[in-house]
Design a protein that fits this description.
This protein is an all-alpha fold and 90 residues long. It has 3 helices and no strands.
Length: 90
Amino acid sequence: MTSHDWERSAVCRTTDPELWFPPPGDNGIRAIRICRRCPVRRACLDAALAEEGTAGADRRHGIRGGLTPTARAQTQPRQAARDRASTPTN
């Protein structure tokens, strides 16, 4: 199991939780701007990608790691390819 100790340092801890789940038609830019200032944004994004696996954008929710559900769904295949390339083979 992965540790989420980084969550204690997340900027979003002190903001309205509704901000991270924008309604349809809202691009979530307010939340994304907050994420850009967050010292643990990368850890948040890595956790989101790991938890969501290969789910499509329709199965992902909220702004996480500075990305929308659609952006995370598009990032997942690239991240998997990088992980495969960095894993040594025997």
